Amino acid sequence: MMKKALVLGASGAIGRAITFELANRGVAVTAFARHRDKLERLFKDHPQIAVHSGDVFSKDELVLAASGNDVIFHAINLPYPEWGEKQPILLANILEAARIQQAKLAMVDNIYAYAKSERVPVPETYAKQPPTKKGTIRLELENMAKQSEVPVLIAHFPDFYGPGVESSVLNYTFQSIVRNKGAMFVGNQKIHREFIYTPDGAKAIVNLAMQEAAYGQNWNIPGAGTITGREIIQIAKAYTGYSKKVRTVTKPMIRMLGLFDSMMREYVEMFYLNEIPLILSGDKYEKHIGPVPRTSYREGVEQTLSFMQRAQ
Q1: What's the CA gap between 54 and 50, in Å, rounded?
Q2: Which of 44, 64, 255, 259 is 20 to 30 Å from 122 at the Cα level?
Q3: Do the beta carbons of residue 49 and residue 23 sit within 8 Å?
Q4: pLDDT tens across 129-144, in order?
């Protein structure tokens, strides 16, 4: 049974959602991130949540924060340019802290390690043949976690959207719509793609973390079906009254932006997911855990836009 949990990256979008989900279930949560002021802003009013600011690259700080916790949730999202150098160091520190404190580890992961696929939906047994260097890094991290002494579960998610999500393809569009500025959508607006609402993702990984049998396995967590960019834009326009045309961001445009922006330069190789989307199967989760949490895209997009409007 999980009585205490540590959430690393608690001030990020999925980390924040996991923190609230745990606390609302009565779990005593330590929310860990670099900036204490942001942690206190987010969690000061919740009696189940204690905040701990620190450096995830300090093994000693992580060991201290992990003390007494049953499960550590790894929800830290590093900028793309730092992945090659820093991701292995970060995970090594987390695994060591979990080992020393005899805690389990629940890892938030993406779909980058999977091979390209036009066959949908993709189960957990689908080939891990990453077509990019970032996918190769994700697979190396997965193998590193599985080869450790720590009980680990790995949850694979599609692109996130939701309250507080700052670095996502949908947030890029929503920001301009909320500000009534010229908006752009990344990728072909006619293609059906998959996104997951962060509160749904949080519910799913917490459900997994509470099941002893879930550890030592990978789990795919799908969104609420697939949706086109056009449909998302229609929902956003109906909710906000936005009337401008939403243009399309193409791969050549991303490549051009990459001449001046390191994040865009790193994103170019991941653009294939906008052209050949990889859709996840939730069959394994539903067989062993229960129904996958699924908020409709209409409700999720409206809740996200409402949050963004209040935050302006």
Answers
A1: 13
A2: 255
A3: yes
A4: 999 999 999 999 999 9
pLDDT tens by residue, 272-287: 898 899 999 999 999 9
Instruction: Identify the DSSP state of 280.
Output: B
Q: Give CA–CA dist 44/39, Å, rounded.
A: 8
Supply the mean pLDDT for the chain.
94
CA proximity to 200, closest of 236, 166, 233, 160? 160
Residue 60 has pLDDT above 70, yes or no: yes
Nearest CA-CA partner of 219 in 172, 270, 283? 283
Q: Assess whether pLDDT exceeds 70 at residue 262.
A: no
CB 308 within 8 A of CB 178: yes
Query: Hey, what amino acid is at 113?
Result: A
Q: Please state whether beta strands 4-8 and 28-33 pair in parallel, antiparallel, or not at all (unpaired).
A: parallel
- The CA distance from 239 to 246, in Å, is 15
- Find out whether 248 and 187 touch, Cβ atoms under 8 Å: yes
